[in-house]
Each structure stands twice: as structure tokens, then as C-alpha cells.
Amino acid sequence: MELGFIGTFQSGAASLDANILDFCVLEIGGGLYLYTVSGAYGGIAVYALESGAPTLIDSAYYTDTSTIDYVAPILISSGTPMLVYGSSYLGRLLGYSLDGVGEIGLRDSLTLPAGAPAGFQSAAAALDLPGGEALFLVDDDTGDLYSYFNDGTGWDLSAGPFALQVETGESGDAILETVRIGTATYLIATTSFSDMVQTFQVSEFDGTLRAVDTLGKFDGVGINTPTAMEIVEAFGKTWILLGAAESGSISVMSLAADGTLSATDHLLDTLETRFDGVTAMASVTVGDRVFVIAGGSDDGISLFTLLPNGVLVHLKTLVHATGLGLENVAAIEAALVGDSLQVFVASALSPGVALFEIDLATLGVTKTTSGTTATTLSGGAGDDMLVSTGDEADTLLGGAGSDILVSGGGAVVMTGGAGSDLFVIGAGIKRQVITDFERGLDRLDLTNWPMLRNTGQLTAWNEGNNLILAFDGHVIEIRPAGSYLLRLSDILPGASLGAPDHALLSGVGFILYGTEASERMIGGLGSDSLLGESGGDTLFGNDGDDVLFGGDGDDLIWGGEGNDELFAEAGADTIEGEDGDDWINGGEDNDLLQGGLGNDYLDGSSGDDVLYGSAGADTLDGGVGNDTLYGGNQGD
């Protein structure tokens, strides 16, 4: 299953093809249409989606761009359907009417009712309800959420304001999505300054809102500056995928029927993927298979699939090359067209729309074990996904095709069969076996092993031709498909694991990994491990007995409450233990160490360090270098 480049298509009008901000795919009158929305002095182009390249059928130009604030396009269906693309400084929504075959009609606008804030809107969402249509808008000045309702007699303000920011009065880009679970309807919201997701239940009768739950950085999910959000319905559940630019992350959350949220995965960009500075995502569900595409400032796109437990698996990354149009990705959309998944990408630097395609004609079955008894799952001739759950000794037989085989925690035996297979290894402590690894063709994903960050941490040896890999109690036996000696370099040739990092979301504590960039990482209420890597990182442990590593670079490290262990490592770092009996090590270079409350141990290590014991009976050791020590006001 390959993500292949088909070509770039354009409308032929420079103002429509440059600076494309967003896409919208709508099904109208039995046809499927792609709408491109460009920025200032541009307009909207409409393409019919059919097998092969999209066909331009219509376009329209903005008449006044000096007073427009653009929003992700939505369709308001009350009266004549209107595609909304922005708002004016007077608070009106701006758009175009659409006819029954997807073409653009007259320019249209919607004036908000009395009580609505006058000014630009940063996000919009619309929803058909039994009693009428609901409209949700976020005020650009304050970041507050408002709900409006039209029962057929006109629009009225039904609820608001709801603060979407950490502090009221902040502004920032917002994202709104809606989803129905059973008989309940929910509005999902996030903003670039909130670093969290909020859920609201929507009244079926008048569109009023009831705040239900939040999940984000204060709960230990390392979200920094949300920029993209997707709602996925698969495996009998509802999932929220949140991309955040500054943390270079994609978070997966499960949305329960009562509107509550729980984190299932937190993916961090590495050198093997291209979603750092993520700005756009798209998702499509085909049967029991979910495809997710993400991109940003990293000059490329990455393709993932979602497992039944809410964990993302990396399938493919495409790196920009001349003509691909993947520089500084601005927008991504995807649609199922015939037997193909078409992926549309707009670049901030290149005109037009880049078209990529996945041929789904060979898409196979998706099967999952019960997790309670040892089970054998068999694939067929297609590209299958076989998933072992629980701790049972399951057997996975891929058969022909490019299969995905996912082990659980038991002594799982996996046979890929013919084709380019991906083996995703679970975090169990029982020895697992791959019976037919084809070097140069099959792939191995070990990123579910907690704390494994590079191949140098693996212990590798051979038993005959078979390769054994072990780390921290996890063991995998890999047997070659032919009569040859299988080596680690045949599977993972460099230091990288070949996939993005997964932060461990255990419900007790989190393990978050940094990258070479400067990042902000935030622990939760449990005992967390934050590993900063290189770059000038900012680490907050929050509650719990945390372990924080700054890595290379000039880092800022706060332990928070609890008895923490703080390792600044290389760089001119600033470290404060805050509450609790903390152990603080400055590492290399000239550091500033502050114990905070509690009986702390401060070790400057090498470099000319400054140590403040602060409150508590502290122990201060300057280490090597010309250090300055201040004990504080108790018996140090």
C-alpha cells in the first residue's frame, strides 16, 4: 500500500492557486466536490472529484479582501446552502450560495443577531438538529465561544460566552468540530493558546451548550499550540486527533458517550517523520481502517493508521522534492474516490494543489483478538491488519499482501507471508517471535517499548541465523525469511528506530520525549519522566515524583510538587525543585540551581554554578568549578 504522487493541478488563475489556506470536501446531489479557499485577494475554486485528476467546474473571486478574517470553510444549510469562508469586522459571516451540482452561486452573508459580539470570528461550526440548525462561533478578540440557533424563523443567540482560553480575554486561532455519539451531540473546541481540548454537549432543541470535560497540558498531555483537529469514528468508538505545532505532536483522545475525554496516544515528530510544526491533518475511515495524514513546517507529509486501542502507527513519510509541493504545508484534505484514497496538499510556497493517491483495491481485512483466549488470526491476499490484544499467546498469519501485524503483551507468534509487512511490537515481557522477516522489504516498529529511544539501547545477539533484540525486559526473536544471518543493521541500519516517538500514557505518569528542537514539555498529576534531548527546552514536572532530563541546550526546569529528580545535563541551565525533597544535578556548564521548599540535595557538578538551597534543610555540593553556594534560612 503506497502513497504515490500523481501530480499538481491548478485552476489557471494565479490568485486562486496561490496562498490556499484550507480545503473543504462536500457531497452535493450525489457528486463529490473539493473546494479550495485562498487568502487575501483570492477566492474559491471548485473541483469535481472523480477517478483520475479532479476537474475544475467553477470559481469565484472575493470582492473585498481588506476586511476579511478567514475561517475553516463550513456549510450552513438553513435556507439556501451557503459555504462560509470568513467574517467581516462588522461580525457578518461571508460566503457563497451553492447550487444542486456543487457550483458557486451568489455572494451571500449572514448577519448575527442582537447580543452577538461585533467583530471578526476565528472559527465556525454548523450543525443540523431536530429543532433547527445550530451555529457556533469563536470571537476573535476574546477567544470566547457563542452558540446561535435558527428554528426556521431566524437566528438567535442561544448560549455564551464560554471561555476557551486558559485566561479569559486572550485571543488566538480556534478550531471547532461536531460529532454525534448515540443520542448525544457534542461540540469539540480548542484554541492555539489553550493547549487543551474542551467538550460541550449540544441541546437537541435549541443548540445551547453544557461544558463537559477538558484534557490537555494540565493533565499531563504535552500539547503546545494546537493547530489541527480531526474527529474519527472507528472500532465502535469516537476519537479526537489533535495536532500541535510548537510541541510537534499528534495527540489521540477517546471521546466517551458521556462527553468525557481520555488520552490514548501522544506522538512526537522525529527525523523519520515530517509533521513537526504541524499545521494540517486529514483523516478518512474505510471500513475498519483509518488513514491519517499530517504535515506542517517540516517539508513533507506523514501517513498513519489508527489501532483499535487508539494508538497511531506510522506507515509512510514523503519528503519534499522538486515539484512535489510539500514545502511548508498549509492545508491537507483527503477523500475516498472510487477504489482510491486521494490526498490533497497545499503548500504555503508553491501554487496549486498536489495530488497523492493510495490504491485501496488491495485493502484487506482488519481483525482483532478477544484478549481473553489465545487466538489465531489469518489474513488473505489483501493488505490486512491483524491485532493481538491482551496478554495471550496469539498467532498472527498475514498471508499475501502488505500486512500490518500488531502484537499484544503475550508470547505472540507472527508470520507476515509474502509482501512488504510491518510488525508492530507490543510492550509485553514475554518473548515474541517473527517467523519470516524479509530484510530490505519488511519493517519493524519497536516504539511501543517504553523508554526505548534509539538502537544503541538495544541488546542484540544471534541464535543461529535468528536475531534476538532485548530492552528492559522486552524480547523479540526475529527469524529470517531465507537461509541467511539476520543482523540488527538489516532491520534498523542507523541509530533511529525509524518511526515517531510515543509518549507513555499510563494513567499514573507520563513519559514524554523531546527532539532536537526547543520544546515545552509538561507533566501531569502522576510521576512523570520528561526527556528534553537537545535544544533549549522548558520542562514542568507538575505534581508527582517526577524525573526530568534537560539534555543538551540551555534549559529551564521546574520540578513542581513532589520529590523530584532533576538532571540538567549539558548547557547553561536554570533548575528549580519547587515543593518537595528534590535531588537536583546541574550537569555540565554554568548552571543556576534552586531547591525551593523541602529538604533538597543540590549538586552543581561541573561548571561555575550558583546554588540556592532556599527553605528546608538542604545539602549543597558545588562540584567541579568555581561555585557560589547560598544555603537559605534553615540548617543546611
Automatic annotation (TrEMBL):
- Keywords in UniProt for this one? Membrane, Repeat, Secreted, Toxin, Virulence
User: Which Gene Ontology cellular component annotation is one that this UniProt entry carries?
Assistant: membrane
Principal place of residence: membrane
Could you tell me which Pfam families the record lists for this protein?
HemolysinCabind (PF00353)
Q: Which InterPro entries match?
A: Hemolysin-typ_Ca-bd_CS (IPR018511), Hemolysn_Ca-bd (IPR001343), RTX_toxin/Mannuronan_C5-epim (IPR050557), RTX_toxin_determinant-A (IPR003995), Serralysin-like_metalloprot_C (IPR011049)
Question: Is Secreted given among the entry's keywords?
Answer: yes
Molecular function, one GO term: toxin activity
Q: Where in the cell is it found?
A: Membrane; Secreted
* Superkingdom in the source lineage: Bacteria
- This chain's protein is named Calcium-binding protein
